[in-house]
Amino acid sequence: MPTLRPQLTKEMEEKVVGTLALSQYDSEDKIHEATLEVVKTQNAVWDKSAVERAVGAAKAAAGLGTLGVEDTLAALSNGQVEELVISSTFDAIEYSPKKVKKVLKDYAPGDDNSATDALPAVREPRQIADELIVRALNSAAKIKFIEDESLLKEAGGVGAVLRYNMNSTAGG
User: Fold this and answer.
1) Domain count, the chain
2) pLDDT in tens, the chain (172 residues)
3) Is residue 148 part of a domain?
4) 93 CB contacts (<8 Å, ≥6 apart)?
5) Which CATH number characterizes residue 109's domain?
6) In the chain, N or C: fewer CB atoms in 10 Å?
7) pTM, rounded to two decimals
């Protein structure tokens, strides 16, 4: 890297997440495993940072974040979400089916960012996860899948950073 790094553009250098001390004689398998380990470590750092942003935004006075399926689903339906963070293990998503059903009824198809007129089965976490993802895609929100489900456990596996808070008032 001492020879290569000065030749990289600033944009390319910012994309380098790690270096490996390997021999040119190492097997492809060894190189592949070492590379995956570096990428896995960096992804864990990015996941933790994304969750911290959502939690921090939700707890901040400005209220520019949500935690939990119900609040995040409502925010997605309103087009408020800038970044959705969701557990990549959909079975780790926990919520109240009754509360989710109410949110889905409040934002009936046609009045929201859903893709179809059919409502998902509220007792199926995978269908609810699909609905969250579809609404994020339809509102141009970024989506970050979190590999370590423990990072979002307290939030039921879902959170978001918002573009705006519908409850905020103009100051003057």
Assistant:
1) 1
2) 678 888 899 999 888 888 888 888 999 999 999 999 999 999 999 999 999 999 999 999 899 999 999 999 999 999 999 999 999 998 899 999 999 999 998 887 665 555 556 778 888 999 999 999 999 999 999 999 999 999 999 999 999 999 998 775 544 4
3) yes
4) 69, 86, 87, 125, 128, 129, 156, 157, 158
5) 3.30.1330.30
6) C
7) 0.81
